[in-house]
Design brief:
Blueprint: H1 6-13, H2 19-31, H3 36-51, H4 62-79, H5 90-102, H6 111-122, H7 127-143, H8 149-169, H9 176-179, H10 185-191
Helix pairs in contact: 3-4, 4-5, 4-6, 5-6, 6-7, 6-8, 7-8
Length: 198
Amino acid sequence: MAQPWQPLLDWWFGSAKSPDEIAADKGKLWFGKRHDRQAQERFGDQVEQALAGGLTDWAQRPEGWLALVLLLDQLPRMIFRDSPKAFSGDLRAQALVAQGMAAGFDRQLEPIQRVFIYLVLEHCENLAVQNEAVSRFIELTREQPEADRAVFEDNLDYAERHQKIIAQFGRFPHRNAVLGRESTADEIEFLNRPGSRF
């Protein structure tokens, strides 16, 4: 009998084998906007359950833990894009990731799956957590065979860029408008630069 989280993992990661192939196949799903409605239609109910504190039994196994993290961190950013609710699962996702990593769950996942655990750290507006994200991505990249490193090096680059923004501002300026936060003059100047938004 299939586990309840398997349809989400199949949708998110597909059936390709190598990290490069998976990223090529799923990159537009992960980082584009075209699949937001599909995310809502297929997994919106599970997202709402997760945000309400449900599905905790999923976190007893590494794969279920990963799926629950996706429901709290990645899918709200799709389903509730450009609204405060996009970030409403972040604190729970961060706590869940900390617990799972302490239990070694991340090391029981495939390398490309681990990316989406460490992205939760990268999304946090806290420099110590950002430093941890960069450390985890460095370690993950070093563990990969040379032929598979490009995808992980790209993720490490993004982690370092996020870290620098938090080191400079203590928060992500590109979230200010959505969260109703007033931007400082320095943040406004930063947001006017190309490539300042994620």
